[in-house]
Specification:
There is one protein chain. By secondary structure, the chain is an alpha+beta fold. It has two domains: about 5-10 and about 95-230, no CATH class; about 20-90, no CATH class. The chain is about 35% helix and about 20% strand. It is built from five helices and 13 strands. Helix 1 (about 5-15) crosses helix 2 (about 95-115), helix 2 packs across helix 3 and helix 3 packs antiparallel against helix 4 (about 200-230). The chain is flat and about 100 Å long. The chain starts with a helix and ends with a helix.
Length: about 260
């Protein structure tokens, strides 16, 4: 089954909108006096425990020998180190909670574009309605405890097209959240005889990006529905290639020709 918080995070990391930075062998901040057990990373939040490695004298420390707070970058050792601990990790602009919110909301966005009744469960062996706070959240079929079948032997987790649709929806959620946050921060300001700062273009640029992403979702949605229809897309909505304005003109011309006796 497809796990939003594991497989979804991995797929989202490949998105250009979701940026991460790798930090290698950085010295943890904190006193190494043999008594202090609390140390800090320079950057935070951290992406995940899976992308984090702690070292003492160049030797990897088992994850059972310390506690890691991903949001604050705090490393709490079981035993106080007497040498400078080091760490390798990936940092991101979003906290763990925010990442989960994006992955959760992206799923809801996908269902709003194409409602297939997929369910989210905190267990892969039985259906337990997920709240979004769990470590694992699995995508389940509407009525069975299985990976949703798209068509034939193709399942949701095995389909690159279906997953692309989901990540495209996550990208849209990222853009919308950025637009909502930065809209109030847009301003123009000039120092007295100094530098000019103009951030008024931020909101319009993000709105344009949201429009482009929505158009991209429409294209990926068509491919996903085509795959589900076995290549024929029968029974699914297919966007007409003509614009509404063109259709209105054509309807008017057709009606006029009928009234004039040309049809």
């Amino acid at each position: 089954m497809y796990d939003l918080f594991v497989d979804g995070l991995r797929d989202l990391q490949r998105s250009l909108l979701f940026k991460t930075t790798k930090v290698s062998f950085e010295g943890l901040a904190g006193e190494t006096d043999g008594e202090n057990r609390v140390f800090f990373t320079v950057y935070q939040p951290l992406l995940s425990a899976a992308t984090t490695t702690v070292y003492l004298q160049g030797i990897v420390v088992a994850s059972t020998e310390y506690e890691l707070d991903l949001d604050t970058g705090v490393v709490f050792f079981d035993e106080a180190p007497d040498v400078q601990p080091r760490i390798s990790y990936s940092t991101t602009s979003l906290s763990t909670t925010q990442i989960k919110d994006v992955l959760w909301s992206g799923f809801l966005e996908m269902e709003s574009h194409w409602n297939r009744g997929y369910r989210l469960s905190s267990s892969s062996v039985s259906y337990v309605a997920s709240t979004g706070a769990e470590t694992n959240v699995y995508v389940m079929a509407p009525t069975t405890i299985t990976d949703p079948v798209v068509c034939g032997t193709i399942t949701f987790s095995s389909s690159l097209v279906q997953r692309a649709l989901y990540i495209a929806c996550c990208d849209l959620i990222l853009l919308i959240s950025q637009a909502n946050y930065l809209a109030s921060a847009a301003f123009a300001w000039r120092e007295d005889r100094g530098m000019a700062v103009d951030k008024k273009g931020i909101a319009p640029n993000l709105e344009a990006a949201i429009k482009r992403q929505t158009e991209r979702i429409d294209k990926v949605l068509g491919a996903a529905q085509d795959e589900a229809g076995g290549g024929s897309a029968l029974g699914f909505y297919i966007r007409h290639p003509r614009t509404e304005e063109y259709e209105e003109v054509m309807d008017w011309q057709t009606a006029w020709r009928e009234l004039a006796g040309y049809e």
